[in-house]
Amino acid sequence: MLPSIRTVLLRDLGTVRAELELYENEADLWKEVPGQGTCGGTLALHLAGNLQHFIGAVLGGTGYVRDRDAEFSRRGVARAELLKDLLHTEAVVDQTLASLTEDSVQRLFPVPFGDRVVGTEVFLIHLCAHLGYHLGQLDYHRRAATGSTASAKAQSVPALAR
């Protein structure tokens, strides 16, 4: 199961980068769109922070310190910085998941959520779903903010092939 989770997360992080590159005007990353509460730049910051925290810091011991509030409050971050952060996130996800064993994934996730504990495997699947959910929001934001119907080939099955 672990190699499959790794493949999906890396595919979708690559698609987040492709989405960002499809914004012709960098300022549109931060454009407010009626009916959509989160802009493309914010989604990129949130996805990188989320995965660097839960996979990098919690499972991989990277020392990353998350500032979730900043993920939603920062504005005007340059596309180049967002892309660099996402590439770093991909490397952290790839290295951390490559270092885990199937046995370690069968244990409880090291951090409880309030008074709840979940298994690491199911939480990793949750992170895949979380990334896919926000990737869809990013695609819709880009299309609404730019008027472009260009495709980043999200959810590409061929991208899963090795």
CATH superfamily: dinb family like domain
Give the count of structural domains.
Answer: 1
The string of secondary-structure elements, in order, is HHHHHH
The percent range for helix content is 55-70%
Determine the oligomeric state from the structure: single chain
Quick check: average pLDDT? Answer: 95
Structure description:
This protein has 162 residues and is mainly α. The protein has one domain (2-156): dinb family like domain (Four Helix Bundle (Hemerythrin (Met), subunit A)), CATH 1.20.120. The protein contains six helices and no strands. Helix 1 (2-22) packs parallel to helix 6. It is globular and about 45 Å long. The mean pLDDT is 95.
What is the gist of this entry?
The protein has 162 residues and is mainly alpha-helical.
Element layout with pairings:
Elements: H1 2-22, H2 40-60, H3 68-73, H4 79-99, H5 102-105, H6 120-146
Helix pairs in contact: 1-4, 1-6, 2-4, 2-6
Which short descriptors sum up this protein?
162 residues; mainly alpha; 0% strand; globular
